[in-house]
Amino acid sequence: MIVAEPKSLDEIKAMTEGFDRILMVGCGTCTTVSLTGGEREVNLMATALRLARKVEGRDIEIGEQTILRQCDFEYIDELKDVDSYQAAVSFACGAGIQGLARKFVGKPVLPGVNTQFIGFNEEYGYFTEQCKACGDCILHLTGGICPVARCAKGLLNGPCGGTNNGKCEISKDKDCAWVLIYNQLERLGNLEQFKKIIAPKDFAKAGNIRSMDLRKAGD
Amino acid sequence: MGFKEALANGEFVVTAEVGPPKGTDISEMVHHVKMLKDKVHALNVTDNQSAVMRVSTIAVTKVLLDLGVEPIFQMTCRDRNRLGLQSDLLGAAIFGVKNVLALTGDHTLLGDHKDAKPVFDLESVQLLQVINRLNEGFDMAGNELKGKTDFFAGAIVTPEANPLEPQFAKFEKKVEAGAKFFQTQAVYDLKKFHTFIERAGKYNVPILAGILLLKSAGMAKYLNKFVAGISVPDELIQELADAEKPLEKGIEIAGRQIRELRQVCAGVHVMAIGTEDKVPDILAAAGL
Amino acid sequence: MKDKVSNIKPPCIVACPVHADIQTYVGYIGQGRFKEALDVIREGCTLPGSLGRICNHPCESECRRNKVDEAVSIRSIKRFAADVCMGLPHPDPIPKIKGKKVAIIGGGPSGLTAAYDLAKDGFDVTIIEKNDACGGAIYTGVPKYRLPKDIVAWDVEAIASLGVEIKTNTEVGKNISFNDIVKDYDAVLIAIGLSISRGLPIPGADAEGVLLALPFLKMVNFDESAKAAKRVIVIGGGNVAIDVARSARRIGAEDVKMFCLESDEEMPASPWEIEEAKEEGVQMFPSWGPKEITVKDGKVVGMVFKRCLSVFENGMFNPKFDECELTEVETDNVIFSIGQGADVSGFVNTELSVDERGRIAFNPSTMQTNMKGVFACGEVVTGPGAAVAAMKSGHRAATAIARFLETGKAAALHLSEPTAIGQVPDSVVDIITKLPRTPVEMANPVERATNFGEVEFGFDQKTAMFEARRCMSCGAGARIIEEKCAACLTCVRVCPYGAPYVREARVANFALENCQACGICAAECPALAIDIKLNIDTGIAVRASRSLDEPFITAFTCQYSVPEVLNPDTVKTAPLAGVNQVAMLCNNRIDTLHILAAFEAGADGVLVAACPDEKCRHNKGVDWPKIRVDRAKDMLNGIGLGADRLEFAKVAKGSAPGLASAINTFKDKIKELGPSPASKQLTPSK
Lengths: 219, 288, 686
Prior knowledge:
The structure holds three protein chains of three kinds.
Chain A: E1 2-6, H1 9-16, E2 21-27, H2 30-33, H3 39-56, E3 61-67, H4 73-76, E4 87-90, H5 94-103, E5 109-111, E6 113-123, E7 126-131, H6 147-150, E8 167-168, E9 171-175, H7 177-187, H8 191-195
Parallel strand pairs in A: 2-3, 2-4, 4-5
Antiparallel strand pairs in A: 1-6, 6-7, 8-9
Chain B: H1 3-8, E1 13-18, H2 27-36, E2 42-45, H3 57-66, E3 71-75, H4 82-95, E4 99-102, H5 124-136, E5 152-157, H6 164-177, E6 181-186, H7 190-200, E7 207-212, H8 217-226, H9 234-242, H10 246-261, E8 267-271, H11 279-285
Parallel strand pairs in B: 1-2, 1-8, 2-3, 3-4, 4-5, 5-6, 6-7, 7-8
Helix pairs in contact in B: 3-4, 4-5, 5-6, 8-9, 9-10, 10-11
Chain C: E1 8-9, H1 11-15, H2 22-30, H3 34-44, H4 48-54, H5 58-62, H6 65-68, H7 74-84, E2 101-105, H8 109-120, E3 124-128, H9 137-140, H10 149-160, E4 165-167, H11 178-184, E5 187-190, E6 196-197, E7 210-212, H12 213-222, E8 231-235, H13 239-250, E9 255-259, H14 271-279, E10 283-285, E11 288-296, E12 299-313, E13 316-330, E14 333-336, E15 340-341, E16 362-363, E17 368-369, E18 374-376, H15 379-382, H16 387-407, E19 419-420, H17 426-431, H18 445-448, H19 461-468, E20 478-480, H20 490-494, E21 500-502, E22 508-510, H21 520-524, E23 530-532, E24 553-558, E25 579-584, H22 592-600, E26 605-610, H23 623-639, E27 646-650, H24 656-673
Parallel strand pairs in C: 1-19, 2-3, 2-5, 3-4, 5-18, 7-14, 8-9, 8-14, 9-10, 24-25, 24-26, 26-27
Antiparallel strand pairs in C: 6-15, 11-12, 12-13, 16-17, 20-23, 21-22
Helix pairs in contact in C: 2-3, 2-7, 2-19, 3-7, 4-7, 7-19, 8-16, 12-13, 22-23
């Protein structure tokens, strides 16, 4: 799922400065699961922002609505009384925030979270990045462990000199993906694969204004 | 005689390194280069070493060439994408640089610009392939070059890495990718190093063992704790701890180790970050 | 909210014949809300003072704590609720808005229960009682050492106070005719119980010194000069026989022997009654059947018994004897306590039918007799049983009568019976804090056998509250709101008891057997999709007319963080004046949202009390609230109120004083900080 972290209240305060009627929109899918964009978080941020404005000496009105997904117009259309708000804060991933912005024509749509990564929910409240959406999957070559996402340098041909006791040079808390890959390929009896040089990645598949069109070409 | 030729002739080769300064005043660096000029076969020029921003490698290699010293151009993949890497290599070739050491490079998070975007478009193995391709007269995209390069490409290896196996497999890949010589991470445990050299022997590629001067027992412990792939044996730490003048003891140890290494490998690479002035003493202690 | 499990109840409630809301009233006692507890008890168990003493408490046998350690002492908690409230005024009369009159013949447990329900429904109820006071068997039969008469009177008064008229010393067929009653009332309920003791037609049964149980017990209850002979034999093995034997001890019998057909294991009396009788010197002789009474000069001198080999055959009463194995016992008195029959003499020459057993004939489905508008309930139709079973019958009759009076006809009752939550799984048993049952103090057996003082002492306030807190709130925990659930598995991950699961349904479900109602999941669910069934009190007071000079503090505490000495009429517990205490189900339920909401409601400071009691059944009453308080502190800094206005107080064991002093210290700190800038009166922005 897409993992997002909460923005600080200071940041939300700053970006909503000057608005008295704000709609906070939660997203019921990825960011709910990553615990930062569901109904609870929207409620918490809305209460906090109202309180912060009270401390500053003004009362503002915040609407709270959570929809199933913000990356589909049909769900966005379920929002109520949209016209009565001056601005919206979206607690969806970047895609959802932009989706909302396309419906909120003429009004600012502000991000309530920082979208982080495509991740795995390891345990309660702990998520790890697993995929960079590079558009060119090589997991079949690397024992099912992605060096693009899980090696700090995205190396394709083995560990760098910074690997130390199975940990990454950037943090003792992070596993060296290439040690994991080596061990897994060894378990799979496929160390030969490790020895093959993987060519430089085709970043053209990741670095453009990407879209995917599954519709049949119909003339 | 040049670096490449000395290795080909089976001479015991000595290299050291020079770190480009942070700023445009190169006087101290030039002083060190002059001091080492006649004592080494070549000098490595580091590339934003430890991800700390400094003068560009290519500029410093030019300074060395002008001073009559043969440079080993260190190139990391951290700060340039494949276009930048190739064009800098071509530029270096114009200046007369022959030796290139292909590195992946330390992560930006370890340096002084932690917020930088790390590139790593390529990595060491792929960079070696690129260098060979340039030597053949083509760029990565397959375009023919007008005037090709003639680089002598090398790479690094950590003989005491833990775990060693993935590291060794990568060493093999580097050989396959065209590495013609290797410089190693600092070695202290010569027993372990011998084992590595025996395994690496069949690839018939010269290996220059890394020598890093131990200034005190404290430094040795620090290296053990914090630096990947370095393990200073307890006996050495004790020897330093017992010494009245640890620095002199360190020089003695380095000299002793170089004498021993002479029996097993092609040369040594003396790393002397901050103690460049001691390199002649070390070499003297080694009888070189 | 969808609640698929609405008719699944804790096993105590299911086992209780009247399905009293045990969980709620036990919970109230634990919180010090005694009066509220009593009100809840009365809805099911209409005679709380009496039943708190004599109920055979099937609830306790089924208590899920039995598997963890021992059952919660539910009966004694009920007794405490009644005893502690005895000084309070009785309930106010209920207006008789229905305009219909109901006569109830017989003021025993079933009749009183029906009277309670019907009066509460607004009917005009009159009880016609042949004795000088209501209570029936528990008044005339149960001895004072188990149930003092003033307790029964208090229970009856409470029902009378609803506006029920009670005509005592009024016997149908003597002082009033049944036909007149039928004529004068819109509905009649016959609840006359079983008031005649049965004897046995064996040789010598008519001798002087042969007595029957109920007249004997009545004599013991109401004749202070009653004396027993030195040697007494009681025939029978039920609770009434035990009452007879123990009463005989108290009026002078030195040698009391009980003989019954049943074997040791089969004796129908409650095990604890048998034990207490033995302690008082009553000797038990099971598996003996009466053969004949030895008589000399018209007086009892002894009795011969034959060995009883078995009592039941295929579940039917069909005793088999070994006529060769005999024993003869010398005695001065023989008291038969082998069963009761109905006294239907008041209904002869009326339309009312009586069945072959001499009981009132009725339709158990409609509770109606053969006469329209005449209903029957209690032992006179069900046969002998526990008082609480008679109450159940009374409730049914009241429902039937109310429907009859509203619709004009008697209809079959389809009262759905709840099903019980299953046992606590072994894995959960292991992690529940073990808390042994609080023993009930008893009078010394040697001393108590000499008088009619109460044998059992009730709980004091502290023990009652502690005992009540042992309740595991079975099934009162998490419920999913399916349409909100994102199947994110957060509940699955945070639950210490393994209660939530997400299966093919792709929404969270909760295994009621596992759930311990701690509230961790509800406070973590990112979709706010979890409700806790037993939400104690999440109402956060709004600062309305409070002066700005005094700090306004909201204190979130566990529902059980209450002072130990309370007035019985305490409704809402607040350890300190000026503090808005919000009692949570458990500290684990305290949510960052609650904390911010309190500030929004005008609090100058918020205190979260970490679980003060290491005897809490949840072991993690500190960690979760701490995490939530830390998040709230971060936000308060961003809000501009500052983290200083929020305190996480680790209150030492002993709860109330520790909590009070923590709150006082905090109050002083808040006073220095001054009123919350967010609580100032604000003019709305344009």
